[in-house]
Amino acid sequence: MHAPHTLRLAAALDQPEAYEAAAYAEPALLAERGALDFVTLGDSFARPGLDALAVAAALAPRTGRIGLVPTVTTTHTEPFHVQAAVATLDWVSHGRAGWAVDVSATEAEARLFGRRGAASREELWREAGEVADVAARLWDSWEDDAEIRDVRTGRFIDRDKLHYVDFEGRGFSVRGPSIVPRPPQGHPVRVVDATAPQARETAARHADIALVRVASAARADAARAELRGVAARWGRDPRTLLVFAALHVDLGGGECAAEPGHGGGPLPTADGPVYRGGPVDLAELIADWHRAGAVDGFHLTPVEPRRDLERLVNGTVALLQHRGLFRTFYPGSTLREHLGLARPANRYAARAKESA
Fold first, then answer.
1. CB–CB of 176/143 below 8 Å?
2. pLDDT of 328 strictly over 80
3. Each residue's pLDDT tens digit, 160-205
4. Where are the alpha helices (H) located in the chain, listed in sequence order?
5. Whether pLDDT at 9 is above 80
6. Distance, CA of 88 to CA of 260 (rounded, Å)
7. Contact residues for 21 (Cβ-Cβ < 8 A; gap 6+)
8. CA–CA distance, 110 with 99 (Å, rounded to integer)
9. Rounded CA separation 262/267 (Å)
């Protein structure tokens, strides 16, 4: 295993039956008081509920520092619209946006759109990788200083600093440029659940954060080594790929010891590993995995949203902060700054400099 890096923490705000913004704002602010890196909002065409990206946009003015990462599927959706919506979230949140990339694999979901049938997960994740690729190109299609906004001359943009991406994928083509200026972060943070084998290459090539659902530190370390190895083969600096352990947490036991069988870690279930115990024991588990250098952070999904998030922030996170393992304030303002990720250079501006 490896020496531990800065600990990162994120939590899910999923509340499928909530239909008011306040139901999401309250837990988001609680997570922000705990200085968590980001919160996620799940979404799927397979269930009813609010649109995660729209909810994140509603949370942007109600929060000030925490990252906002909605799920946006790449299946049955237009890549150009997806990237523009995520870029818009980055603008309205002042650089706190992320994007949890996912696919839609069932025939029932395909019938909602009527444009094509269901496809294999291998095919869908290849397509998701292409969507993530063209999104990054479109985010770069405006150079950072493309906007002039000169009222006197009436010039709004420097057309020489807008670029066609001319992307040709297997199932779509995009000319560009984007209709949204380059986002504050350059590229909003991309998150991919890399647990399924079909998703791993897309995560290794395009994600800033890969989630792995594993029940032990050793398996987490092995998954990170595998993902970073693939990233390196694609020419990435593997250190730019952060790997988070994704756990469901049931803290209904209060301060009691971990449920039998969970003392050494979470137990695997059909929905992924689940930790059941108290906030103190969860802090010990997080500290142990972090000290072992097995993962870069944790993404925690409360089993009982209100109860478990409150116990997570006021119990587990507070204890980690007291021990000096997790920060007590945000040192920066953007999600990339929270995560220690550099703002990507604009590929088109870099090429122009090289040819000058």
1. no
2. yes
3. 899 999 999 998 999 999 999 999 999 999 999 999 999 999 999 9
4. 21-33, 52-59, 79-92, 107-113, 121-140, 197-206, 217-233, 279-291, 305-311, 318-322, 335-339, 347-355
5. yes
6. 46
7. 55, 58, 59, 62
8. 22
9. 6
- What's the chain's average pLDDT? 92
Question: 194-205 pLDDT, tens per residue?
Answer: 999 999 999 999
Single-letter code of the amino acid located at 57: A
| Two tokens, residue 108 | 């029932």
Tell me, what amino acid is at 3?
A
Pick the more confident residue, 151 or 259: 151
Residue 230: how many other CB atoms lie within 10 Å: 18
Give the torsion through C-alpha atoms of 110, 111, 112, 118, to 10 deg.
0
Give the CA-trace dihedral at 330, 207, 349, 171, to 10 degrees: -140
pLDDT tens digits along 214-223: 999 999 999 9
Q: Kindly list the distances between the CA atom of residue 294 and the CA atoms of 23, 162, 203, 241, 287, in Å, as whole numbers in the listed order.
A: 34, 42, 18, 14, 11
Give the whole-angstrom CA distance, residue 252 versus residue 308: 7
How many beta carbons lie within 10 A of that of residue 159, not counting itself? 11
Which residues does 279 contact at the CB level (< 8 Å), separation at least 6? 251, 255, 311, 312, 314, 315, 316, 319
